[in-house]
């Protein structure tokens, strides 16, 4: 259901869909956020812990935002992959996938620290905490698309991962058009954040299942 919903949300961003044809669920970011276990955000010991063994201590919202921003500033560097998991037995693909999961896990912790309605809908000043978090989300979406492409450069037979690859690549187009202010006037940040957060949540689940089915 989530896959089909994300595809439907994404399709109205295509150039030929200049009018909004798909209704937006006003609580979809909250839905996406709640679909992450709260135990993940709190660093609890569970099957959903960060795959690289990273745990978030008790942090203030400002400190958590800085951690999220710092990760986004460095995780696009291939050297970060080795630093995050130095075990030489870890395959390159597994490094990519674990990094993707780790980054989305950190996003879930960040989203637990902010007001969802403010993050999705508020008019905010450039450089404010919410604005910085939104920029970090867009960076995460672009980095995730990059690492997924590196993990599956020729595609995959896995249907859910194929959907995720499509959605992530399309996210990059959405962000590029948003940054150029080239999207239709009735497309708001609310719509964009809904698409990004839901597609990242789906990617986390699909990657986790793939790793469990294909241990290397």
Would you kindly provide a written description of the structure presented here, covering whatever features stand out?
By secondary structure, this protein is mostly helical. The protein has one domain. The protein is 64% helix and 0% strand. It is built from 10 helices and no strands. The protein starts with a helix and ends with a helix. The model is unreliable at 1-48 (pLDDT under 50).
Considering the chains and any ligands shown, give keywords for the structure:
single chain, 216 residues
What portion of the residues fall into strands of 2 or more residues? under 5%
Radius of gyration: 17 Å
> SS-based structural class?
mainly alpha
Q: What is the number of strand segments? A: 0
Shape: globular
Which sheet architecture does the biggest sheet show? none
Give the CA-CA distance, first to last residue: 29 Å
Q: Helix and strand string, N-terminal first?
A: HHHHHHHHHH
Low-pLDDT stretches are: 1-48
Average of pLDDT: 76
Count of individual helical segments: 10
Tally the structural domains: 1
Give the helix level as a range of percent.
55-70%
Short characterization:
This protein has ten helices and no strands. Helix 8 packs parallel to helix 10. The chain is 64% helix and 0% strand.
Please render the helix and strand layout as text:
Elements: H1 2-11, H2 28-35, H3 38-41, H4 61-74, H5 78-84, H6 92-111, H7 116-121, H8 129-151, H9 159-179, H10 189-213
């Amino acid at each position: 259901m989530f896959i089909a919903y994300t595809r439907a949300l994404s399709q109205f961003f295509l150039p030929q869909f200049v009018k909004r044809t798909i209704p937006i669920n006003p609580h979809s970011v909250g839905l996406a956020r709640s679909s992450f276990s709260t135990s993940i955000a709190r660093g609890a010991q569970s099957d959903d812990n960060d795959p690289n063994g990273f745990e978030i201590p008790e942090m203030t919202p400002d400190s958590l935002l800085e951690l999220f921003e710092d990760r986004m500033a460095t995780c696009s560097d291939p050297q970060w992959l080795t630093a995050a998991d130095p075990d030489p037995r870890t395959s390159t693909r597994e490094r990519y996938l674990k990094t993707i999961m780790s980054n989305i896990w950190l996003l879930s912790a960040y989203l637990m620290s902010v007001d969802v309605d403010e993050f999705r809908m508020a008019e905010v000043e450039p450089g404010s905490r919410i604005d910085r978090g939104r920029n970090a989300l867009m960076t995460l979406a672009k980095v995730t698309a990059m690492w997924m492409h590196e993990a599956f450069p020729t595609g995959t037979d896995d249907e859910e991962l194929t959907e995720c690859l499509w959605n992530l690549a399309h996210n990059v187009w959405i962000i590029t058009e948003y940054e150029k202010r080239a999207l239709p006037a009735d497309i708001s940040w609310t719509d964009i954040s809904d698409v990004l957060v839901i597609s990242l949540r789906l990617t986390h689940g699909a990657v986790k299942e793939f790793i469990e089915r294909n241990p290397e």
